[in-house]
Amino acid sequence: MRMPANNEEEIIALHRALDAAHGEIRTLKAERDLYKEKLRARMRELFAAKSEVRVSDQRDFFFNEAEALAPTAQTEPKDEVTVGAHKRAKRGRKPIDPNIPREVVRVELPESERVCPHDGAALQEIGVEASEQYHVIPQQVHVLRTERVKYACPCCDKGLRLAPAPARIIPKGILSDDTLAWVISSKFQDGLPLYRQAALLARFGGEISRNTLAGNVNGAGLAVQPLINLFQDQLFEAGLIHGDETEVQVLKEPGRAAQRKSYMWIRACGSGPPIRLFTYAPTRSAKFALELYAGVPPGAVLLTDGYESYEAVARGYALIHAGCWAHARRGFIKALEALPKAARTPDQPAAKMIDAIRQLYAVDSAAETFGAEQRLQHRKEHSRPVIELIEAMVLAHLHAVNPESLLGKAFHYLHGQWPKLVRFLERGDIPLDNNDCENALRPFVVGRKNWLFSDTVAGAKASANLYSLIETAKACGVEPYQYLRHVFARLPLARTTDDYEALLPWRVNPKSS
Q1: Distance from CA of residue 401 to its chain's centroid?
Q2: In 166-301, which ranges are continuous DSSP H helix?
Q3: Are 183 and 175 in contact (CB under 8 A)?
Q4: Model pTM?
Q5: Average pLDDT over residues 224-249
Q6: CA separation for the pair 513, 504 (Å, rounded)
Q7: CA 275, CA 267: separation in Å to the nearest integer?
Q8: Under a CB-based contact definition with an 8 Å cutoff, are residues 383 and 363 in contact?
Q9: SS (H, E, C) 330-367
């Protein structure tokens, strides 16, 4: 028996309505899952550890450091001693560096006890039994008084002469060169803001205002510009350059509100001297990036993250653009950590991708001591199969997950960066990531949390110069404070290019600086 036409139309309409309702339900569920993911990601960003290290036994030492390390507080790490066919830990503390100055405290027996209890003979000294402890002297404020001797002729008033003033990096500055090096290293290496340094010095008798400290720091930052120019000349001769940037706030910038974000750019050498060159800019535009990299020779390798301005630089100057696997990995870590704990299983696509990228690093770690050609061959044999596995996973999941989810964003980022990410298979001297550059930028980011902003453009530029000196010195194995002392003492005497080049960190003997 056939159903009336109007009933059939009603049933068809009901089916369509049900399909539409199911579609809306699926959309609502997808939106709900996205909001849940965003909430978990935000909660992790606010309260969880920021490290991307994939271990399960990490602990937070910020507050329980003393308690956690108490069992080993009395001893330093133990050396190993070879005994027969095995090694065992050497007992006792590690000796203190013999180059550290010593202050000797001599403990004598009382006169009454320097007599032999058996025969009454006077005891004679036969040696000492010594122990050593670290002894830190708090800051001491002294005044360095420079007296320039005057000479005059006893017969007339035309023979007056005055000894010349010693050359100083800031001729009329209130800080000595050594004090200036201490203030700068405390701020830019240790992240200690100038207002805290002023309070610290005041406790020991040094009434120096924050503004005075800032003026001296800025003056030193501008005075080292000749060295920064040599840094850039050397950077452009490198065959591999890393690039990155981060935000900085400048309060008094002409034509811009104090709330506007400016940027600190960093370029780092991946070959040749390990230069770390910071540059301040009010913008993050491709136009400025092109100006910043003008002079890099065609064919050089530029290794960066996926920011599009670097793509314009690579095209504009015919550079080989390589991508950063650490950035690609970061998206999958965020996606995995945003899942409920019970769902973070090894068979999750994000977990599989993280493990595959770990294999790439394991291959390169095994080739750490290889030359470029040998490393390239090693990569072709061992890294290429991993790359093929990663590519298959990308193609399988790229359109199977919500592109707005963290996992979808991670897959789309990796897919968009793919030509640059696989460029390391073409040359053995291209690193897997941009970590050298990021590690040099990290002290700036940490310091920014303490000093928050730069007051003026000149201060931001001076800070960029001083960060360049300190981070390059660290990369060259030179202690920054000692290096700054070395530079500040000799820079005012430099006259020729050779004089300035002798002050470059990679030409300074770390022990003599």
Answers
A1: 35
A2: 177-188, 194-203, 210-223, 225-235, 286-292
A3: yes
A4: 0.78
A5: 93
A6: 11
A7: 8
A8: yes
A9: HHHHHHHHCCCHHHCCCCCHHHHHHHHHHHHHHHHHHC
* 29: pLDDT strictly greater than 80: no
- Output the pLDDT for position 510: 58
Q: What is the residue whose two structure tokens read 């991993």? A: 386
Joined together, the tokens standing for residue 381 give 């044999």
Q: Rounded to an integer, what distance in angstroms lies between the CA atom of residue 348 and that of residue 299?
A: 40
Q: Between residues 38 and 94, which one has the greater pLDDT?
A: 94
Position 214, amino acid: A
Backbone angles phi, psi at 252, to 5 degrees: -110, 80
Would you state the structure tokens that stand for residue 146, as one six-digit string?
């420079």
Residues 6+ apart with CB under 8 A from 294: 317
Total residues belonging to the chain: 513
DSSP 403: T
User: What is the sign of the dihedral through the CA atoms of 237, 243, 248 and 251?
Assistant: positive
Q: Which residue has the tokens 């050593």?
A: 132
Bridge partners, 83 (sequence order): 86
Name residue, tokens 């800032």: 214
Q: Using alpha carbons only, how large is the chain's radius of gyration in Å? A: 32
- pLDDT exceeding 90 applies to what percent of the chain? 45
Q: Which two tokens stand for residue 18?
A: 């049900």
For residue 470, what are its two tokens?
């300190």
Spatial distance between the Cα atoms of 499 and 513, rounded to a whole number of angstroms: 15
Long-range Cβ contacts of 475-481 (<8 Å, 24+ apart): 475/274, 475/275, 475/276, 475/440, 475/505, 476/273, 476/274, 476/505, 476/506, 476/508, 476/510, 477/510, 478/505, 478/508, 478/510, 478/513, 479/510, 479/513, 480/185, 480/189, 481/181, 481/182, 481/185, 481/189
Distance between CA 49 and CA 44 in Å, rounded? 8
Q: What residue has token string 């579609």?
A: 23
